[in-house]
Amino acid sequence: MYEILMPIDTDADRALRQARAVEDLPGGPEDVHVTVLHSFTDNPSGASITQLQAARRVESHLEDVGYSVTLDEQSGSPADAILDVAAEDDVDLICIGGRKRSPTGKVLFGSVTQSVLLDADRSVLVCRRNDDA
């Protein structure tokens, strides 16, 4: 079984672009398991990944086309959570959604995608931002 980790934020359109990128990978859905991950950085109300529209939409989409999907949630730094879950689950691929940021924004606020790309010890697929979105 090919294991894919798909970290998402709250942007449902970006999550669906990630799901479509998974569909474009070689092989069929019967040989792939996708773990959809959301890391809550601040969650005083105790929200769950199942409450996120992005998670529900991507789970439904992937299951409709035949993929096995698990939802997972973590707390803390998104980049750390992604790398930790990738190692714990020994995933084959991390499928992450990119977003357009200015060079200043990357320096001031960091970049989850950049951190994952630099620190991952496995393959990372970055889904391009849709310029029409």
UniProtKB/TrEMBL annotation:
Residue ranges annotated for the UspA domain, each copy included: 4-128
Record-linked InterPro entries: Rossmann-like_a/b/a_fold (IPR014729), Universal_stress_UspA (IPR006015), UspA (IPR006016)
CDD domains: USP-like (cd00293)
Similarity annotation: Belongs to the universal stress protein A family.
PANTHER family, alphabetized: STRESS RESPONSE PROTEIN NHAX (PTHR46268), UNIVERSAL STRESS PROTEIN UP12 (PTHR46268:SF6)
The protein's name: Nucleotide-binding universal stress protein, UspA family
Organism: Halorientalis regularis
